[in-house]
Amino acid sequence: MTARRYARLFRALGYRVRILAADAPTIEADIVVALHAKKSAAAALRFRRNSHDGRLVVVLTGTDIYRDLPRSRIATRALEAADAIVALQPLALERLAPALRNKARSIIQSVALPADLLHERVMKGRCEIAVLGHLRNEKDPLRAAFAARALPRHLPVRVTLAGGIIDSAYRNSTTAEAARNPRFRYRGEIGARAALRCLARSDALVLSSRMEGGANVLGEAIALRVPVLASRIDGNIGLLGANYPGYYDVGSTASLRRLLQRFIEDRRFRRTLRASIARLAPLVRPARERRAWGNLLNELRARAPRSASR
């Protein structure tokens, strides 16, 4: 999905674009944008060996920054070979070695909403909570369900989880949680448009990730002005800001339960979260991301060939 979204963006900037798998035997291009430093490392390094004048950009993911880079030599080599490094939120840059940081920048992913999709929900009766994303350990996808189950019985709340199962252990755990927790439902994998509709109809998004490079769903919540209850990790703080009032301790059911209960019971707190999210809207405007990528690609094209600069 990220590759297709970038392809549309680059075409809008006037470039001819091809999407290739990481195991493509040959890569012929003026500029290669490699998604994920570790997973695309072999392809990135192969391109660098075979193209002295081509430009290489590596886009960092959360697993790159917060898991792989400290222990993956091939991921580090891909970054060393890159002409530019892109992170999806500014705090990620602090994790890079100084020698890499000077060629890195953050470009926040934008969100283009369908014209007929707006967040108009005002909480009445039951509080609707959305959790959207693939089910794997890094996302901690059942944390909101656990927190909702622990709330006092009189509080009306429902957690809707949607996303494909990546880690097979979640097949049993989602079924078991739905059987014991009347406040939880799992919708399985749904399309992008359906996910946006689910988010727009919700009172809040719970973003429970243990590690995150800069979640696209967070940008969607910002664009829709949906309040976010987020784990306190760099990937979320880098987009929401250090002073955002809607954080809970990562992996803690008790901490999320307290935050969720406050959200349900405290109308003033809900207004504060909505206002905080609304102020972030300029970050995810498509023109902002398009301008940032346009500037980077123009800079790369303007540089002298690598062979001439040796």
The count of strands amounts to: 10
Provide the structure class: alpha/beta
Indicate the proportion of strand residues.
5-15%
Assigned CATH superfamily of the largest domain: Glycogen Phosphorylase B
Number of domains: 2
Low-confidence stretches: none
- The radius of gyration is 21 Å
CATH class of the largest domain: Alpha Beta
CATH third-tier fold name of the largest domain = Rossmann fold
In DSSP terms, counting alpha (H) and pi (I) runs of 4 or more, how many helices? 13
Going across the major beta sheet, what is the strand order?
7-6-5-8-9-10
Largest sheet: 6 strands, parallel
Second-tier CATH architecture of the largest domain: 3-Layer(aba) Sandwich
CA-CA gap between termini: 37 Å
Provide the helix percentage.
40-55%
Average pLDDT works out at: 91
N-to-C SSE string, H for helix and E for strand? HEHEHHEHEEHEHEHEHEHEHHH
Spatial shape: elongated
Plain-language structure description:
This protein has 310 residues and is of the alpha/beta class. It has two domains: 127 residues, Rossmann fold (3-Layer(aba) Sandwich); 158 residues, 3-Layer(aba) Sandwich (Rossmann fold), CATH 3.40.50.2000. The chain has 13 helices and ten strands. The strands form two sheets. Strands 7-6-5-8-9-10 form a six-stranded parallel sheet, sandwiched between helices. Strand 5, helix 6 and strand 6 form a beta-alpha-beta unit. Helix 6 packs across helix 11. It is elongated. The model has no long low-confidence stretch (mean pLDDT 91).
